Amino acid sequence: MNVHSGDILAAPSTLTSPQRRAPLGPGIPSRRGHLLGPGLLLLYWAVLSLTGWLDPRTLPAPWTALTMGAELLREGRLQTNLAVSAARATSGLLVGGLAGVSFAFLSGLSLLGGYVIDGVVQLKRGIPILAIIPFMVLWLGIGEPMKIAVIAVAAFFPIYIQTHSALRAIDLRYVELAETLGLSRWQFLTRIVIPGALPGFLLGLRFGATAAWLALVVVEQLNATSGIGYMVTLARNYAQTDVMLVGLVVYALLGFGTDAAIRWAERRMLGWRRTLGR
Amino acid sequence: MNAAAVRVRDLKRTFTVKGVLNGVDLDIARGEFVALLGRSGSGKSTLLRALAGIDHEAKGTGEIALPSKSAVIFQDARLLPWLRVLDNILLGQSNAARPRGVQALEEVGLAGREHSWPHELSGGEQQRVALARALVRDPALLLADEPFGALDALTRIQMHDLLRHLSARHRPAVLLVTHDIDEALALADRIVLLEDGRIAADIQVAGRGDRTLIALQRKRLLAMLGVTEGPQPRDA
């Protein structure tokens, strides 16, 4: 049906103003858009707690986490444990990341390296990280080295895999270009290979950071005398659900914060890219 | 004719996939503009890639002598998306070449675009940047592999003028691979016809500006390529 057929317009026109097609892209992103989902979840939780649908012994109210967190801060327990946990996760991520990037370059840029390293990595990929913890304990004991090693191994794989596949995906046309421009091996590496592999590395880093936090939770509950995981384990023994909740919230904030930080770095470093999801 | 810039003798190349050269002899004098014309699959890109030294996948024999300074322009501009325009032009050059890069950018008509990202430029502008990247190296030999093939007709005409102007000014030997007879006639001093990996004809372009003469040569070249044109309305 044509809406404006006749009554106002003197001559019924077959011309209609073109309808603007709805864009297929998701539109312009808001800077704080990422907060919407977590915000809704928080709201849902608060409503359940307020109405009494949620037994505080099962899961305390969100504000309990805040008051308990404040109390733990006053006692000084939260920040000391947090510092220990953060140091563990960071050093594990650093070791795993460095190893992941170095091995990715070795296997991505040399044929022999690829044959030797990539095969082994693909083989190991099939073994879940939690399954190697008994061996880690056997080899490294139950102290700090074991914890950092487990976190490093967990972070290594995503970083290696993403960086390696990004290196392999570097356009051959750019390699040709480098040859015709007479670039040295070093120039080729710094101007073409590294910038070309950077998006893949950053993606791997995001996965790696998540994996590092996950591994941290596991090793801290295994055997520890400090750290957020220790705090939570201790609280579980005394059925202090509010302290356990604080631990959970801290983990969530750390994970969310790390991811946001890497994403921010991504936007800064990959400003040259035009993509759908910026 | 003055001393040779390019000397190719009995060049043979085979591939497992496509493209063959069956004994090509070719000389290009310094400052000479040669168009390499042929149908697709005639081996013209193979010859250019052999000269550019990027035909690793090919097997072959023969002798190639080239000037030490040469530059290649590809069909795609092939700019690195993560480098700004000026950094693309200066890729692999020392920092001392910076003023020359700015100057080259000016010469291709893109003054002031030093800090643009490649994706901010149009296809024609990107190809101009590629031209500037070649210029800044001050090449004695410029190899161009259908550099205007991906551009629209109007931009192509502008690029023809630009390339003609720049090559007249800097006098590199040029080998332009193309399948466009009009492009070859508009730009080249000499047209080399490649067929089935062999040079089938080698023609000096005469009488640029003389339309009847150019039309005649065009007809001859088309006949050599096995194309017969039907009667067409011509503006006399």
Overview of this protein structure:
The complex is a heterodimer of chains A (278) and B (236). Chain A has 278 residues and is an all-alpha fold. Chain A has a single domain, classed as MetI-like (MetI-like fold, Orthogonal Bundle), CATH 1.10.3720. Chain A has ten helices and no strands. The longest helix of chain A has 38 residues, at 185-222. The two termini of chain A are 40 Å apart. Chain B has 236 residues and is an alpha/beta fold. Chain B has two domains: 4-69 and 142-222, Rossmann fold (3-Layer(aba) Sandwich); 80-138. Chain B is 32% helix and 25% strand. Chain B contains seven helices and nine strands. Chain A binds chain B through residues 173-174, 176-184, 187, 191-192, 195-196, 198, 270, 272-274, and chain B through 52-54, 71-72, 74, 76, 78, 80-83, 91-92, 117, 119, 133, 137.
Describe the structure using short key phrases.
heterodimer, A: 278 residues, mainly alpha, MetI-like fold, 10 helices, 0% strand, B: 236 residues, alpha/beta, Rossmann fold, 6-stranded mixed β-sheet, 3-stranded antiparallel β-sheet, 7 helices, 9 strands, globular
CATH topology title of the largest domain in chain B: Rossmann fold
- Number of distinct beta strands of chain A: 0
| CATH class membership of the largest domain in chain B | Alpha Beta
Average pLDDT score of chain B? 87
Figure out the total of helices of chain A.
10
Order of strands across the main sheet of chain B = 5-6-7-3-8-9
Please tell me the CATH architecture of the largest domain in chain B by its name. Answer: 3-Layer(aba) Sandwich
Instruction: Supply the CATH architecture of chain A.
Output: Orthogonal Bundle
CATH superfamily of chain A: MetI-like
Helix fraction bin of chain B? 25-40%
- Output the radius of gyration of chain A: 26 Å
Order of helices and strands of chain B: EEEHEEHHHEHEHEEH
H/I helix tally of chain B: 7
Structural class of chain A: mainly alpha
SSE string of chain A, helix = H, strand = E? Answer: HHHHHHHHHH
Query: Rg of chain B, please?
Result: 18 Å
